[in-house]
Design a protein that fits this description.
single chain; about 600 residues; mainly alpha; two-stranded antiparallel ribbon; 21 helices; about 65% helix
């Protein structure tokens, strides 16, 4: 059977399972909608948390970024995995002991202020919408290539599916759907890795294959071969970095601290019965996450070497079918600048921005002509987000393996998108309406508002999928920076400092969020949306202290802490009952059910 047929079979089968689970686990109360009834087992919650955590950025984009960044790409591995350890050990048990539905719930009660709750809602919406933009782009990329539909229709199909089980089932439906999605995505990620590792090195274990010799290449180690190949082409060595030590530290710290402040991951720990179950589910999730995260560097190496071996100095007329199929998505492009009919893959941008194809005109070699080619020697553009998806095709694996990767990419993107949509809907229905502006509404009315909010949120998320702001992982990294600069300090001080008051927390959160937003707008606006900078130069040479926008959330976090500390010392201490609440939170035992 063809790749298209296999893709239809696997996508329809997996989506049918997701929809069936949503119908079976539909929410009938606000408690089921927000925290799945609070009775999820640690193992199931661990699998659901892993699926929630391993988004399109992890499945589709991370290995692609590492394959082009090389050593510098290790910041994603260190930051995201280290942050999850921090969240599991440092925050999750105490937040579970608090026993509420949402992160803004914690802010509202711990900081005894409706203003604190509203500011937390605004921060949650900023983080979640930035994050979900990357997920919907991943959905569009997968659908556009594998199902031969436009990116617009691909995003719309994904919107309908995720809206169905998120609105119908709430957290209860999402949790058990994410268990199924974890099984799909981890199987889809590992199977081609086993195939390609054995194909290239003779070792079926990708983590080991990456460090062994290449089959039939005079006992040359794979990483040595990749280093030599890249240097011969004029690129930097794969195994050495180009980023400054400070920038590497800042990005890693921003990703770590942002992980510990992500609302859609934190809320997963509210779905279990006891504090010890939160710890257990965190351990399970970390083990499940490690399967993918230890494999991603190997996938990155295999993909980059396979790509170079396939396209470099190859005549376009001899190019394999996968290349010409991916051309149709606009995510890969070639311009024959020197008119020799061969692909010249060299350092530098091949085009001004992304390739813009002529709709009808073809070149002398049959290639799709591009209207925005520049004068650099490089003739090839490769979108980082296609490396994992195209890797099985580049390696000429069986059709069912190629289709399996498509199903896995969709599972990863939709699982995280659902969790983010729930954060958005609960922030509006529970924290803004029930807890702030409409305290007298019934549970039934609150549930209706939550579902309406989810509908609006998925429409906005769909817009970002159709008009993507950048590579999946780079967009998601910005979201982590926002979480680090806003939620992490206030959550940490709310748990471990009885002296932190509402004035300090609110001032710190606003300062961290605004400071980070200023930097992102200044240096990332034209990169993400193609807009002219509105706050001056956006050249990387002008980065403050050499810190990239992806890492500036770390600086925003420091600003948050400093402002919060100074303001709290200049204003009255929290009431005695709040200080007693903090004392009780720090003894993580005897947690009851999540409550309003």
């Amino acid at each position: 059977m063809s790749v298209f047929t296999w893709t239809i079979i696997l996508v329809v089968a997996t989506f049918s399972v997701y929809i069936g689970i949503a119908i079976w686990a539909r929410a009938g109360s606000t408690k089921e909608f927000y925290v799945a009834g609070g009775g999820v087992s640690p193992l199931a919650n661990g699998m659901a948390t892993a699926a929630d955590w391993m988004s399109a950025a992890s499945f589709i984009s991370m290995a692609g970024l590492i394959s082009f960044m090389g050593y510098d790409g290790s910041v994603f591995l260190m930051g995201w995995t280290g942050g999850y350890v921090m969240l599991t050990l440092m925050l999750a048990p105490y937040l579970r002991k608090f026993g509420k539905f949402t992160v803004p719930d914690f802010f509202g009660d711990r900081y005894y202020s409706k203003t604190a709750r509203i500011v937390a809602v605004i921060a949650a919406l900023i983080v979640s919408f930035t994050y979900v933009a990357g997920q919907m782009r991943g959905v569009g990329v997968v659908f556009s290539h594998f199902l031969h539909v436009s990116i617009e229709w691909g995003v719309i199909i994904g919107m309908i599916i995720v809206l169905f089980y998120a609105v119908l089932g709430g957290m209860k439906g999402i949790t058990y759907t994410q268990v199924a999605q974890f099984c799909v995505l981890i199987f889809a990620f590992m199977v081609p890795a086993f195939f390609i590792s054995f194909q290239m090195t003779g070792n079926p274990i990708p983590q080991l294959g990456m460090g062994t010799t290449v089959t039939g290449d005079d006992n040359m180690y794979l990483l040595d071969k990749l280093d030599r190949t890249l240097v011969d082409l004029g690129f930097h060595e794969y195994t050495s970095g180009t980023k400054s030590t400070l920038d590497v530290f800042a990005i890693t710290a921003a990703l770590m601290l942002g992980t510990a402040g992500l609302p859609h991951v934190i809320v997963r720990f509210f779905t279990v019965k006891r504090v010890k179950d939160a710890r257990k589910s965190g351990l399970y999730a970390l083990l499940f996450i490690a399967i993918l995260y230890t494999t991603a560097p190997a996938i990155a190496v295999f993909a980059r070497q396979n790509l170079i071996d396939t396209v470099s100095e190859t005549s376009y007329t001899d190019m394999p079918e996968w290349f010409k199929k991916w051309e149709n998505t606009g995510l890969i492009g070639w311009a024959d600048k020197n008119k020799d009919g061969k692909v010249q893959y060299l350092p530098g941008d091949a085009f001004d921005g992304k390739p813009v194809f002529e709709t009808t005109v073809r070149g002398e070699s049959g290639e799709r002509l591009i209207v925005n080619a520049n004068d650099t020697p490089n003739e090839l553009y490769v979108d980082r987000d296609i490396m994992v998806l195209a890797n099985p095709e580049i390696a000429n694996l069986p059709a069912w393996v190629i289709a399996l990767v498509a199903a896995g990419g969709l599972a990863a993107a939709l699982s995280t998108a659902a969790g983010l949509l729930l954060v958005i809907s609960s922030s509006i229905s529970h924290d803004l309406l029930r807890k702030t502006f409409m305290p007298n509404i019934t549970d039934k009315q609150e549930l209706i508002y939550a579902r309406l909010a989810a509908f609006v949120a998925v429409c906005i998320a769909g817009y970002f999928g159709i008009n993507p702001p950048g590579f999946v992982a780079s967009v998601v990294a910005i979201a982590f920076g926002y979480a680090a600069a806003s939620f992490f300090p206030a959550l940490t001080m709310g748990i471990f400092s009885k002296r932190m008051n509402k004035e300090g927390a609110i001032a710190g959160l606003i300062a961290g969020l605004l400071f980070t937003t200023f930097y992102v707008l200044k240096f990332k606006l034209s990169v993400l949306w193609g807009l002219e900078p509105i706050l001056g130069s956006n050249s990387p040479e002008d980065w403050w202290l050499g810190i990239s926008p992806e890492g500036f959330g770390f600086v925003g976090m420091i600003v948050n802490f400093l402002v919060a500390f100074v303001v709290s010392r200049m204003t009255p201490a929290p009431p005695p009952e709040v200080q007693e609440l903090v004392e009780s939170i720090r003894i993580p035992s005897g947690a009851g059910e999540a409550t309003h």
